[in-house]
Specification:
It is a single chain. This protein is α/β, with parallel strands linked by helices. It contains twelve helices and eight strands. The chain has an eight-stranded mixed β-sheet, sandwiched between helices. Helix 4 links the parallel strand 4 and strand 5. Helix 7 crosses helix 12 and helix 8 crosses helix 9. The longest helix is centred in the C-terminal third of the chain and has 22 residues. The protein binds NADP nicotinamide-adenine-dinucleotide phosphate (NAP).
């Protein structure tokens, strides 16, 4: 068992309701990081064959029975699609006893909405992780509901710090986190792919080009994170007067890359707001 910064996860039992793409990524990462032992986990899926495959692969309990998963759990990680939230919360309501907490990665469904659907004053923490959690390089935004204490937030923090970095935000900012770091991975893949296509266009083999693009993006991101310098300052350091970088930058500005990326984050954030369930 990993000793977390708070030590709050020791001996906790985890239910993962909806171990699909993100639920499965997080579950695998938590097990790999030894955050929870396999014997303390019960995961669910809608289809029995999916649950059966998970149980076999990961050595955990898995079923289609959300109530059974919640019955023995301390932490309930909710990872179903927004449309399934109402049904799942109604199903688990009879098992939601004091001492349990919900950590929800479901986009667009507020803590208030979940509390209302459960009809209980239970601690709910919303988390918005991204897929690089699979390799321990995730970015997660956390926001707590009114019944969640500092201690509940620390439990969620310990979970997601095991698979990357965490920021705590006010719940009204969580859709922005969705638009930037959760949807943002897809934007970054498009940029990376396009840079690699550029390399192919100027004669590099595709595999070499993809490696150059990916390592360059990672290096640039690490420079920002490790130095704390403003990206503009780091960009200026690469841009020699009348050099080739400046010619490339001119093309980017001409193609409105900045405004396009700003609008992409705005649209994705807006869409996350629109997906909200009716109470
Ligand atoms: N994908 C991401 O990068 C990402 C990032 C952050 C947050 N999220 C949020 O995470 C949630 C899930 O997204 P996803 O991409 O992981 O979707 P997904 O792959 O479709 O996973 C949803 C899972 O829920 C299961 N499920 C559906 N109804 C259920 C029920 N009644 N009881 C138990 N399990 C049920 C499905 O089971 P079957 O497999 O048997 O159908 C599936 O395993 C969404 O709300 C999304 O907003 C996703």
């Amino acid at each position: 068992m990993k000793t977390t910064k708070s030590g709050k996860l020791a001996n906790k039992r985890l239910a993962v309701l909806g171990a699909g793409k993100i639920g499965g990524i997080l579950l695998r990462a938590f097990l790999e990081q030894k955050l929870v032992p396999a014997k303390n986990v019960h995961a669910t899926a809608r289809h029995a064959e999916k649950a059966h495959a998970l149980a076999k692969q990961l050595g955990i309990s898995a079923s289609t029975d959300n109530r059974a998963a919640v019955r023995d759990a301390d932490i309930i990680l909710l990872a179903v699609k927004p449309q399934a939230v109402r049904e799942v919360l109604e199903e688990i309501k009879p098992e939601m006893k004091p001492g349990k907490m919900i950590v929800s990665v479901v986009a667009s469904v507020s803590t208030q909405m979940m509390e209302k659907l459960l009809g209980l004053d239970l601690p709910v923490v919303r988390a918005m992780p991204n897929t690089p959690c699979a390799i321990g390089c995730g970015m997660t935004g956390l926001a707590k509901g009114v019944h969640a204490s500092k201690e509940h937030l620390e439990i969620a923090q310990a979970m997601f710090e095991a698979v990357g970095r965490v920021v705590v935000v006010d719940e009204k900012q969580i859709d922005a986190v969705t638009g930037l770091s959760a949807s943002g991975t897809a934007f970054i893949y498009i940029i990376l792919e396009s840079l690699a296509e550029g390399g192919v266009k100027v004669g590099l083999p595709r595999d070499v080009s993809t490696l150059l693009a990916a390592q360059t993006m990672m290096g640039a991101a690490r420079m920002v994170l490790d130095t704390g310098d403003h990206p503009a300052l780091l960009k200026d350091a690469v841009t020699t007067p009348a050099g080739s970088t400046m010619d490339g930058i001119l093309e980017l500005e001409d193609g409105k890359v900045r405004v396009t990326l700003i609008k992409a984050v705005m649209k994705a954030t807006q869409r996350a707001k629109e997906l909200i369930l009716e109470p």
